[in-house]
Amino acid sequence: MTQDFYTQPSVSADDGAPLGCPVSALGAAFNPFTDPYLSDPYAFLAEARRDEPVFFSPEINHFVVTRYEHVRDMLVNTEDYSSRMAQSPIQPWPKEAVDLFAAENFSLVPTLSNNDPPNHQHVREFLKDAFTRKRVKWIEPHVRRLVNESIDKFIDKGKVDLTKELLYETPARVLFTFLGIPDDSIDKVKVWSQGRALLTWGKLPDEEIIASIPTFIEYLRFCHDLVDELEQNPGEDYTSEMLIKLRDEKPEGFDKTRLIITVFGLLMAGHETTTNQSGNGIRTLLEQRENWEAICEDPKLIPGASEEIIRYDSSVISWRRVAKRDITIEGVTIPKDAQILVSLAGANRDERKFKDADKFDIRRKNAIQNLSFGMGNHYCLGAPLARLELVIFLEELTRRIPSMRLVEDQTFEYSPNTSHRGPQSLWVEWDVD
Ligand code: HEM
Fold it and tell me: Which residue's CA lies nearest to atom 6 of ligand 1?
């Protein structure tokens, strides 16, 4: 296991402020785990972009960066910024949790999103065929069938929580087919993933962190066992294909342990994100209903609308980097080894890049320049699959339930998490003949 996983780099004075840098009022007010930020991060981010585009947050011991040009540079510039902490707990674990985890001796070697060059390139090169155009085409009918099977089950009800009945399970089932995981593991993997998201990007009391460690370990063990099983009995899935490629090619910088951790990573990255993205998108389309009606009337607008959804209300609102040297931006010096919360949501609403950035415009020409999937070497490996799933959800829902609308007076809840964002439930209703 790498020490970095749970050891926070220390650049702070005793009061939590980085050495020599006073905490501003805006920095002190930033709390990504509570309202109003949780239910609407955009108002705060607009203020930060305007007044203090780089500020220090004592709440999370990170610098926060919100303008497009700075965020983009941090994503692509691997000389000055490291990804090594991207999967580490944002809130340090208490010693008891660290000891419990360390006792299991799991190797959490960096693979993709928390890896740096040169090893990141080796791993990425080995895994690069994951979502080729061919494979995405292969999986498309499967996604469409699963979506329609779920719609068949609830279409006569006239009112459902769409998250629960459709958006929660479908991306997981798609990913399971892809990775070679039996469908009957969905419930436990979903629960594990949500727990893991909170352990990594959330804020929990120490007792809850400690209590979550056995589940975290169970999740890792599940991935080990899966890879062992597929090594013995390969299927037609991606994991089996990678195991065979591994045996035949013996690549530099990649081995079975890294494959296990990759599966562990994909199991989180590959469905929570899409569940949340679809929830955000459908909520926005129905709240600004003329857009829903436009795509019902003209489905050719759906791919463009999906891209605007991904820009306007991403399911991954921030990511992380570590400064490799002292770097001064907009008069603020980020010291070497300081952690940075890179606000993708802040960048996506930056007026300097997107005209009328707070307007949801499904015909926006440059929506695709959003940073929701990152940019550069770490650009999201699953972006083609995520886009496909969102488009298919919208195509099938508008085709089959055009009268769908939001149930009035519902409140949308978001889990206290710096990075992953989507409504926990989404109640919709429609006319039933
Ligand atoms: C709307 C849905 C999704 C969003 C918004 C999203 C967003 C992101 C972001 C922001 C990154 C980090 C980029 C960086 O560090 O610069 C990332 C990386 C990654 N994502 Fe996604 N993602 C989504 C769906 C998926 C899916 C469906 C999969 C897999 C099936 C996936 C797999 C990955 C992987 C493996 C990486 C690491 C790539 C690397 O570091 O080389 N993601 N994603």
Answer: 373
Residue type, 267: L
Coil, strand or helix at 310: helix
Q: Is the peptide bond preceding residue 402 cis, with omega within 30 degrees of 0?
A: no
Which of 264, 266, 380, 387 has most ligand 1 atoms within 8 Å of its beta carbon, as the pocket-test mutant?
Answer: 380
**Contact in structure between 270 and 112 (CB atoms under 8 Å):** no
Q: Is the Cβ atom of 269 under 6 angstroms away from ligand 1?
A: yes
Under 8 Å between Cβ of 381 and 130: yes
Backbone angles phi, psi at 205, to 5 degrees: -65, 150
> Tokens standing for 389?
């799933």
Tell me which DSSP letter residue 328 carries. Answer: E
Q: For residue 118, is the peptide bond before it cis, meaning its omega torsion is within 30 degrees of 0?
A: yes
Give me the pLDDT at residue 7, please.
54
pLDDT at 21: 60
The DSSP bridge pattern shows strands 427-429 and 159-161 to be antiparallel
**Residue 13 pLDDT > 60:** no
The full set of domain ranges for the chain reads: 3-429
Res 106: pLDDT: 80
pLDDT in tens, 120-177: 999 999 998 888 888 888 899 999 999 999 999 999 999 999 999 999 999 999 999 8
Phi, psi of 163 (to 5 degrees): -60, -50
Helix, strand, coil shares of the chain, percent, nearest 5, are 50, 10, 40
Q: Which atom from ligand 1 is nearest to the alpha carbon of 387?
A: 1
pLDDT of 11 over the 60 cut: no
CATH code for the part of the protein at 3-429: 1.10.630.10
- How remote is the C-alpha of 277 from its chain's centroid? 9
Q: Does the pLDDT value for residue 15 go beyond 50?
A: no
